[in-house]
Automatic annotation (TrEMBL):
Matches recorded under InterPro entries: G_AIG1, GIMA/IAN/Toc, P-loop_NTPase
Name used for this protein in its record: GTPase IMAP family member GIMD1
Coiled coil: none
A Pfam family of this chain: AIG1
Family note: Belongs to the TRAFAC class TrmE-Era-EngA-EngB-Septin-like GTPase superfamily. AIG1/Toc34/Toc159-like paraseptin GTPase family. IAN subfamily.
Length: 221
């Protein structure tokens, strides 16, 4: 909390190359802080922190409206085209401790593409990676962000139909994080109203977790 009339939420985006991590981070911030474009190699090679302006009309607590600030840590993808798993893990772990070591992390957002299938090996590698970063309580502090939801909609899938026909691999992942998921329409995510909807959903996840934060201290192995 910056003051009694303001709340700051701390988020980190994690995911594979070309899932739209950086674009999702920009959508949450309402800015273009993070470099994001199509590329034959991984675009993000280091962690960077973005901060939003004060956002009003999103959250009320104890009957009072609070201004909201969002902090998003963008991270290199895993697997990465140029960095090893250890390099990515150590880079992200160090950045989490540096930026959120005192205030704590509210949510890690695992970014997946809604228009691509999730394979078992990919899920298992991703879960292991997040466990190494966040520790044994990772499920309480992780939500899934399904990007490119507009492409799934173009294919005739509503959110409900998409989840009904989802593979057991994706279904088990969503179940493991207590069904904390959000669909992100890449065509509408820059619209103020769409951003407000996503932020309210994130705040609801944080509220369900009693506003707890995950404290991440850097430890050398």
């Amino acid at each position: 909390m910056a003051d009694s009339n303001e709340m700051t939420i701390n988020l980190v985006v994690l995911g594979r190359t070309q899932t739209g991590k950086s674009a999702a981070g920009n959508s949450l911030l309402g800015s273009s802080d993070f470099k994001s474009h199509r590329s034959p190699s991984s675009v993000t090679t280091c962690c960077s922190l973005g901060r939003s302006c004060r956002i009003s009309g999103i959250i009320r607590k104890n009957g009072c409206e609070l201004a909201l600030r969002v902090q998003v840590l963008d991270t290199p993808s895993y697997p990465h085209s140029d960095l090893s798993k250890d390099q990515v893990r150590d880079t992200v772990r160090s950045a989490l401790a540096h930026h959120f070591g005192e205030e704590g992390l509210h949510l890690a957002l695992l970014v997946l593409r809604a228009d691509l299938p999730l394979c078992p090996d990919e899920r298992d590698d991703t879960i292991q990676f997040i466990q190494e970063l966040l520790g044994p309580t990772w499920k309480d502090f992780t939500a899934v962000l399904l990007t490119h939801a507009d492409k799934a909609e173009e294919a005739g899938f509503s959110e409900e139909a998409y989840l009904h026909s989802a593979s057991s691999t994706l279904s088990s992942l969503l179940s493991s994080v207590q069904h904390k998921y959000i669909f992100l329409d890449n065509q509408k995510s820059i619209i103020k109203e769409e951003r407000a909807i996503v932020l309210r959903k994130l705040l609801n996840f944080i509220r369900q977790n009693n506003y707890q934060v995950l404290l991440l201290k850097h430890s050398k192995e």
